[in-house]
């Protein structure tokens, strides 16, 4: 009898273990069955081509939407699909107080995550926050609703510079949320003179204190952009000879690199494990608040710039769309825009917000780089099928010994 | 109702229907989709174009990816052997403990699973870090080593992380097999003048083989497909096949090639499993 009990206990425990292991790791889900990723994305993928045709259809009958608008009431609740820790703490409550609309948030960890989820047919999100190149892809794939500018009067607060974006001129589909740069952060206690050129990073010598104590982002396009910018090439190049040169540079640099990290690099700098890291300005500045020993700069050859945006994905109801537009309008409010930017140490595209912002924030050159540095910042642009070439070169870098 | 009672077969089918339908929908259908996608052309930014091609399968045998396959196999095999070496004695110890204590020991084995795997992996990072990790700092402070040991960002760290993560999964099935073992068989062996070593080798080991096989499979398969551990403990400096597959879906937006890699990996895994089963069957018969 007792034996039987024990066996059932074990079987139950084993099942529990597998279940826990499966849901536990978040990304750790991978292991038991490789069909998993496809499983969530695949079933609806057959439908994916359809939306591509949709936008053209919806573009035409725009006037029909306007009269309907009158009768539509905003939804009681919307879900914002956002990067984690990317709002000011009071923001959602303020919005609910003002409009009676409740907000809940769900998080993604990369643009690729967001894209794959939505392509897989995830619904229920009313506002999403993709970066520039992902907005471009989503527009091309017909995944975004057009914004009704009548519902977003605060658009006038936007810096005119941000109405002429390469990926969405005229803000037809999206409104910039925050923007930032990719450069180098370092530990100011352990390193007095960080290399001012990318050369110090890609051609680090064993005598350099940061040799073996630096990380590069674990992101194919960011790392290749840095290498291509150092080599003096276009960071969105499709020239295979230039890419080959960049790949070789990265392979040679690998010995001096402690790791490729996108999640934890700023903490490793703060803790003194590494001396410098390739990363995003806001991450370093937030960590600087905590550790007090981190500074950030853009190497002399330049770096990358990115803009995160609020968009509305296809598939929302008219009520949700209206509520989402009200939320976008709320974020464009000068006070809210200022709160958001100052809390996150990222730059706000909201000109009216800057007028009332704390000088310490708006004059911080690490948040708002001066003109001569802005000129050296480049967007990472989507390259369609050519991205496979980048991915393969990156795999070569990663598997080089 | 009456009819049901008279036809036990029908009853059995009704009971089976739910798991069968569940498996068909949530196991077979995704597998089939992965299979079909392997032979289609990629969409520009994810998705597929419904055009037949063998290109994806051909690309799997690119030396770069093939090398990664071999490397992943190597890491998974080493992980399995180490967990077996550590797990068998542990399972034996638990099985031979007084019955009153066994449940508590099995319970203790499960405790790590209460914490998210990702968090436990980051905890290992804190221990293993080269310059500020607890182990290196302690050893340096005690003057045992003068230069930090390379504990982090290499294969050692990956295998350590995998062994740590999957050890309980190895122990449980072996324990289940040993716990069921009939003591009188060992008494009989001793009556026939078998030394305790021989009794173990001729009686205990063969009877525990089903547990060893189950445990090895449960460790080998997820280790082969791992991608979080190499990314975190390996410092992202080397690739396993799981990383390449996830990069195809997320980075390159190339779903068909990701599917083809998954398919080939599953087939390779299936072959490895069959060989392993054959081999254990043979050794079971031999002993």
Structure description:
The complex is a heterodimer of chains A (401) and B (287). By secondary structure, chain A is α/β, with parallel strands linked by helices. Chain A has two domains: 69-179 and 306-368, 3-Layer(aba) Sandwich (D-Maltodextrin-Binding Protein, domain 2); 181-304 and 379-399, Periplasmic binding protein-like II (D-Maltodextrin-Binding Protein, domain 2). Chain A has 18 helices and ten strands. In chain A, strands 4, 5, 6, 7, 8, 9 and 10 form a seven-stranded mixed sheet that branches. Chain A has a three-stranded parallel sheet with strand order 2-1-3. The longest helix of chain A is centred in the N-terminal third of the chain and has 23 residues, at 2-24. With 287 residues, chain B is mainly α. Chain B has a single domain, classed as MetI-like (MetI-like fold). Helix content of chain B is 76%, strand content 3%. Chain B is built from 13 helices and two strands. In chain B, strands 1-2 form a two-stranded antiparallel sheet. In chain B, strand 1 and strand 2 form a beta hairpin. In chain B, helix 8 (155-180) crosses helix 10. The longest helix of chain B is centred in the first third of the chain and has 34 residues, at 63-96. The N and C termini of chain B lie far apart (52 Å). Classes of the chains: A alpha/beta (401), B mainly alpha (287). At the A-B interface, helix 1, helix 2, helix 6, strand 6 and helix 18 of A face helix 2, helix 4, helix 5, helix 6 and helix 8 of B.
What attributes does this structure have?
heterodimer, A: 401 residues, alpha/beta, D-Maltodextrin-Binding Protein, domain 2, 2 domains, three-stranded parallel β-sheet, 45% helix, globular, B: 287 residues, mainly alpha, MetI-like fold, two-stranded antiparallel sheet, 13 helices, 2 strands, 3% strand
């Amino acid at each position: 009898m007792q034996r039987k009990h024990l066996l059932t206990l074990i079987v139950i425990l084993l099942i529990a273990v597998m279940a826990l292991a499966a849901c536990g790791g978040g990304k750790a889900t991978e292991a038991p069955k490789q069909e998993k990723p496809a499983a969530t994305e695949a079933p609806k993928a057959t439908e994916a081509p359809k939306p591509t045709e949709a936008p053209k259809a919806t573009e035409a009958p725009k006037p029909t939407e306007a009269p309907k608008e009158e009768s539509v009431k905003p939804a009681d609740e919307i879900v914002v699909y956002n990067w984690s820790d990317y709002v000011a703490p009071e923001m959602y409550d303020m919005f609910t107080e003002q409009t009676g609309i409740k907000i809940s948030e769900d998080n993604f960890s990369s643009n690729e995550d967001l894209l794959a989820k939505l392509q897989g047919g995830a619904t229920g999100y009313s506002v999403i926050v993709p970066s520039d190149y992902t907005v471009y892809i989503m527009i091309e794939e017909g995944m975004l609703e057009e914004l009704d500018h009548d519902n977003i009067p605060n658009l006038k607060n936007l810096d005119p510079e941000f109405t002429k974006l390469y990926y969405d001129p005229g803000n037809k589909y999206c409104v910039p949320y925050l923007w930032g740069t990719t450069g180098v952060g370092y530990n100011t206690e352990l390193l007095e003179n960080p290399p001012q050129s990318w050369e110090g990073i890609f051609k680090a010598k064993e005598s350099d204190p940061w040799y073996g104590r630096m990380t590069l982002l674990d992101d194919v396009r960011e790392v290749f952009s840095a290498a291509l910018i150092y080599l003096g090439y276009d960071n969105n190049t499709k020239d295979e000879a230039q890419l080959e040169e960049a790949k070789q540079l990265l392979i040679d640099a690998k010995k001096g690199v402690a790791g490729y990290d996108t999640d934890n690099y700023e903490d490793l700098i703060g803790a003194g494990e590494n001396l410098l890291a390739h990363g995003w300005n806001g991450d370093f500045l937030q960590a600087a608040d905590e550790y007090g020993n981190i500074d950030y700069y853009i190497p002399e050859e330049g770096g990358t710039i990115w803009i995160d945006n609020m968009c509305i994905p296809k598939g929302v109801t008219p009520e949700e769309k209206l509520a989402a537009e009200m939320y976008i309008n709320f974020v464009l409010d000068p006070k809210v825009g200022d709160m958001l930017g100052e809390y996150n140490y990222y730059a706000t595209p909201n000109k009216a917000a800057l007028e009332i912002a704390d000088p310490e924030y708006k004059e911080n050159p690490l948040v708002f780089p001066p003109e001569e540095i802005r000129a050296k910042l480049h967007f990472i642009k989507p390259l369609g099928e050519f991205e496979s070439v980048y991915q393969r070169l990156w795999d070569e870098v990663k598997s080089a010994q | 109702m009456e009819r049901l009672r008279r036809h036990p077969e029908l009853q059995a089918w009704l009971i089976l229907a739910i798991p069968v339908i569940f498996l068909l929908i949530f196991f077979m259908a995704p597998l089939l989709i992965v299979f079909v996608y392997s032979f289609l052309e990629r969409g520009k930014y994810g998705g597929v174009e419904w055009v037949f091609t063998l290109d994806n399968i051909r690309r799997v045998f690119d030396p770069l990816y093939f090398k990664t396959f071999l490397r992943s196999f190597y890491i998974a095999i080493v992980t399995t052997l180490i967990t077996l070496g550590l797990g068998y004695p542990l399972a034996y110890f638990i099985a031979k403990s007084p019955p009153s204590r066994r449940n508590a020991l099995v319970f203790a084995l499960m405790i790590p699973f209460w914490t998210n795997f990702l968090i436990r992996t980051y905890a290992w990072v804190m221990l293993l870090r080269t310059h500020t990790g607890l182990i290196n700092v302690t050893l340096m402070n005690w003057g045992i080593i003068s230069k930090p040991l390379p504990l982090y960002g290499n294969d050692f760290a990956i295998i350590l992380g995998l062994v740590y993560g999957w050890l309980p999964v190895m122990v449980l099935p072996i324990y289940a097999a040993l716990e069921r073992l009939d003591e009188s068989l060992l008494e009989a062996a001793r009556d026939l003048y078998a030394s305790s070593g021989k009794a173990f080798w001729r009686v205990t080991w063969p009877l525990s083989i089903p547990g060893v096989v189950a445990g090895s499979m449960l460790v080998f398969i997820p280790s082969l497909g791992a991608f979080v551990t190499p990314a975190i403990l390996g410092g992202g400096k080397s690739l396993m096949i799981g990383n390449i597959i996830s990069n195809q879906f997320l980075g390159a937006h190339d779903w068909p090639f990701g599917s083809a890699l998954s398919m080939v990996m599953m087939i390779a895994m299936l072959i490895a499993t069959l060989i392993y089963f054959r081999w254990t069957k043979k050794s079971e018969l031999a002993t």
